[in-house]
Amino acid sequence: LPVPGRHSLEVAMNKDEEMRAKQMAAMQAGQDSELSKMQEQEQKRQEMEERKRVMIRQILEPDALERLNRVGLVKPEKRQQLEAVLLNLAQSGQIQEKMSDGALIQIIEKVDAQRSTTSSVRIQRKRRD
């Protein structure tokens, strides 16, 4: 025998479950779109890095490229700074042919000179009175 009022309770529960399912689906779709955006940004960043690597390879001779890679192993931020300088020089037309190791050393020295004037280390010692 059907119980009166039970049918309306089941319908109400089904509607609540349906709303929850819709909310969960919307949240899942939002997360999926966020994930795809992040993957797309990462892919664009990797493509830019690859283009930069190709340009650097075209600018530098093999020994200079090896030196730049060794600098990057020790100080990655310095390598990024050097790459930016090299790309700027190439885009402005100041680099006409492949750069030798000696020319790269000169650029490294210039960058080091700029860095040393902008940042310096001071050692303060505690005094005993």
Describe the protein.
The chain has 129 residues and is mostly helical. It folds into 2 domains: 10-59; 60-114, Orthogonal Bundle (Helicase, Ruva Protein, domain 3). Helices cover 78% and strands 0% of the residues. Helix 2 (62-74) runs antiparallel to helix 3 and helix 2 packs parallel to helix 4 (101-118). The model has no long low-confidence stretch (mean pLDDT 86).
Features:
129 residues, mainly alpha, Helicase, Ruva Protein, domain 3, 2 domains
Over all CA atoms, what is the radius of gyration?
Answer: 30 Å
The CATH architecture of the largest domain: Orthogonal Bundle
Strand content: under 5%
CATH superfamily of the largest domain: PDCD5, DNA-binding domain
GO molecular function, one term: DNA binding
InterPro entries: PDCD5-like, PDCD5-like_sf
Pfam family, one: dsDNA_bind
Region (Disordered): 1-50
Summarize the structure.
The protein is mainly alpha-helical and 129 residues long.
Topology:
Blueprint: H1 6-59, H2 62-74, H3 76-91, H4 101-118
Helix pairs in contact: 1-3, 2-3, 2-4
Organism: Alexandrium andersonii
InterPro entries: PDCD5-like (IPR002836), PDCD5-like_sf (IPR036883)
Biased composition (Basic and acidic residues): 7-21, 34-50
